[in-house]
User: What shape does this take?
Amino acid sequence: MNLPRLCLIPLAALMMVACGETAKLPFEAGVGPNPQLPAPNKTLIPTLKIAEASGWNDTAGPTAAAGFKVVALARGLDHPRWVYTLPNGDVLVVESNKPPKEPGAPQAEKSLFQKAKGVVQGMVMKRAGAEVPSANRITLLRDANNDGVAETRNVFIQGLNSPFGVVLVGNELFIANADALVKVPYVEGQTSATAAPVKVTDLPAGINHHWTKNVIASRDGSKLYVTVGSNSNIGENGMQAEEGRAAIWEVDTKSGQKRLFASGLRNPNGMAWEPDTNVLWTVANERDEIGSDLVPDYLTSVKDGGFYGWPWSYYGGTVDARVQPQRPDMVAKAIAPDYALGTHVAALGLTFSSPRGMPPEFANGAFVGQHGSWNRKPMAGYNVVFVPFIGGKPAGKPVEVLTGFLSADGKAQGRPVGVTLDKSGALLVADDVGNAVWRVSKQ
Assistant: This one.
């Protein structure tokens, strides 16, 4: 072992002890259509504050807001990240985690300090439950008697490559793997896939700093929209590693041909069509390491051809001075997001509500699954919130719908990720630390 390698251990330990600064603004300052954007607070040691994963006991679960009840549709899953409801009411659960590093994938030259920072972040993510092997599987849950609890579960398909998003178009089920969009045939009622996946199109992979790829279909099924997060925090791995990333791609369903639909979105995940306007919306995770008060993650409509700033700016024209060389021409194009969700909440899941399954005050708006922060003191997220909409736009403060994921001593009993509605209009939530899918319905 050479000296630089030996130096990583004490340096990493020092970084664990010196865990950075603390938020100076109230959390609410980073929420809404016009969030406060204070001066960056860049510290030598990034803020590291994340809940250690503990999981739930056999009967415990999160707490639903007044007017709702919550039950476990299923427990004992393996890192469930995403949920999708089929037309007959069956629920697909994507059990997945990040892929192993690809041999020969491009890697930027790193300093001793950067290497130590990587070691620390790996240790932190392991404590948070984010380093478990990927099951690479989709499980089908069936609640035949409609009591909110699945009586049966079947392995629908396995042997995938870190899958995340799924969508059904006609008799084909599309699956967004970490490196490609694939499809399998589907017949209503079947409980397992009957054919091997067929590749539709490749997706940017490589370093895979953000590996999750989501997919949604247009209303007529002719186009698919696929999210691809960035390969870095702020382009530090070189912009050649960002080719086609930090973006949403439009894919022709039949031919697999694709074009860039929107770009400059650091890490878009959940997508959904706003029901009144049929406009595409997404939630995105913004950049890290400039303080607990920056930068808010957000919920935004997505414009065809729109550029949203990453890596050169955030929230429209707010320049990130760390990114060199600067690109004022790109900053001038940057679109400000519609609605800030708060700093470092890690918004991942997104679905719009339906009056058929929700109380009137929750009938029009968006549910957002917030996985929880690692780069903020105090912690934020670790909940599911509802953002009310009027006329196709956010109109009011977020309301917590599902809480209690953090225990009294600050451990993560669960962490919400994907959200969707079941056939009745109740809310389903994938919990990748609690290894459960929760069903939230009106009382």
Summary: Residues 312 and 329 are 10 Å apart (CA to CA). The chain has one domain: 3-104+112-442. The radius of gyration is 21 Å.
